[in-house]
Amino acid sequence: MRNKIFSIIILFLLLSCTASPRFNTQGAGNSSKKTTNILLSSSRKINKNKYKSELRGFTSWYGPNFHGKLTANGEVFDQYGLTAAHRTLPLNTVVRVTNLDNGKRLILRINDRGPFVDEHKRILDCSYGAAKKLGFLDQGTARIEISIIELGDNQYMSHN
To answer: What are the φ/ψ torsions at residue 114 (nearest 5 degrees)?
Structure first.
């Protein structure tokens, strides 16, 4: 009996040590008109008000041709991961993407640049895994809304 209880406690402790998403207390939808600057470790500033807190447009997906290659922020691209590419948002920005065609939502991190096709309509390129969870894998594109949760640090991951 004691061994069973001990095993359950150990299992509980192991399962409780999972990674959690990082969110700051300052929401992107802050209604203050005052310009908010985020100071980066490299002493550069990102003007938070430069970016709309919500964006609407179309998304597409990418994966097989880029799987295993480096992304714009320096990490290795995993097509099954929950990441996306955006042309202008700072790298490592966390966004909530809503598929307006079916209502599915997902939190993604911007780790790459793109899309470079249909630039006036497409505002996001999702990874294969994100497209599958958002339910537009077969269609190839979807109407979406992007809500910024946390602006990224725009830092490149070095591989020393």
So the answer is: 150, -175
Distance CA 123, CA 22 (A): 24
Task: Please answer whether residues 153 and 30 qualify as being in contact, where contact means their C-beta atoms are separated by less than 8 angstroms.
Answer: no
Phi–psi pair at 97, nearest 5 degrees: -110, 125
Judged by DSSP in three states, 134 sits in helix
Q: What's the pLDDT tens digit per position in 80-93?
A: 999 999 999 999 99
Nearest-CA neighbor of 114 among 73, 158, 157? 73
Using DSSP's 3-state secondary structure scheme, residue 104 falls into coil
Is domain 52-160 given the CATH code 2.40.37.10 in the classification? no
pTM: 0.69
Q: Which residue has the tokens 């294969």?
A: 128
Q: Are 84 and 109 in contact (CB under 8 A)?
A: yes
CA distance 104 to 28: 21
Q: How far is CA 61 from CA 23, 26, 153, in A?
A: 25, 30, 24
Domain range annotation of the chain:
52-160
Q: Which of 75, 83, 99 lies closest to 155, judged by CA?
A: 75
